Amino acid sequence: MKKLFCLSLFVLSLSQPSHVFSEPSAEYLDYNVVRTLLVTTKISNGLRFDVITPQTLPFEDLPQNRNYEAAWYSDELLVVRTVKTGKLLHAQTLKSSSIMFLEGFNSKKLSDDYVVLREHSGGASCCLIIHAFQTKPKFKKILEHNNKNFDMTEVIQGEHTIELHKEPFFSVGSSAELKYNASIYNLKENDWE
Fold it and tell me: How many other C-beta atoms can be found within 10 angstroms of the C-beta atom of residue 65?
């Protein structure tokens, strides 16, 4: 019975389409492909934050008008420079092309002394990475926080506070049933409240 089952799996695998698409290794990519990049810029206190992300390009000769996966090339970058001199202060790769600057709304508006980015690198409510930077009196990266499986739309809570998921030191129960543990991070103090 076991042999029959294995044989039937083998025959079934032969009947599947032979073209399968997966992410290629970086060393085998064709870097001669012209890749259109989008630049989103935010200026704060004389500092220029450029988020560079790729556009997906048509891959004409594949079936079903497949597209190049822009992420294959790892072109997602954050570059921070001074506006006056162009001096490079910070550069880092990002994990996604879905990135936005967060500013807050009305009474929960973020101070110009901070820049907060939200990077979405997963599914419907997965994999939010929050980046926070201080722009004044001196530039520095304050935080890079993986918000795990929680999608918070109202991250900004005030001039220098953001709300994030903070994993408890100790938790009981299944990791499949995570509870949102809202915690306030104070950017001014560079610490949890």
Answer: 9
Name the DSSP letter for residue 160. S
For range 9-26, the mean pLDDT: 53
Of 154, 157, 153, the residue nearest 108 (C-alpha): 157
Q: Give residue for tokens 């009947």.
A: 15
List C-alpha distances in Å: 97 to 37, 75, 80, 114, 176.
10, 9, 17, 22, 27
pLDDT of residue 40: 94
Does residue 162 contact residue 144 with C-beta atoms inside 8 Å? no
93-146 pLDDT tens trace: 998 878 999 988 877 889 999 999 998 877 655 678 899 999 999 999 999 988
Cβ count near 151 (within 10 Å): 16
| Contact call for residues 130 and 145 (beta carbons, < 8 A) | yes
β-sheet bridge partners, residue 110? none
Contact 151, 128 (CB under 8 A): yes
What is the model's pTM?
A: 0.73
d(CA 13, CA 24): 22
Tally the residues of the chain. 193
